[in-house]
Specification:
- The protein is built from 1 helix and no strands.
- By secondary structure, the chain is mainly alpha-helical.
- The longest helix has about 60 residues.
- It is rod-shaped and about 95 Å long.
Amino acid sequence: MWWLFLSVGLAAAGLAVLALCAVRVFTAVRRLALQVAASTEALGAASDRLRRAAEPLAVRAGEISRR
């Protein structure tokens, strides 16, 4: 009979370990999603700045090629 209690206890301990791992993965994924969102915003802002900085160069290049 004690084998039954031991197997149930080990199964419960295994489930507790799996639940702990799941919580850790969930929090890591949430942090990663926040970092990805912040990086996306930073890349969007950088691309806008680059486009604005390159626009005068493109106009000048167009003027040179028309000559």
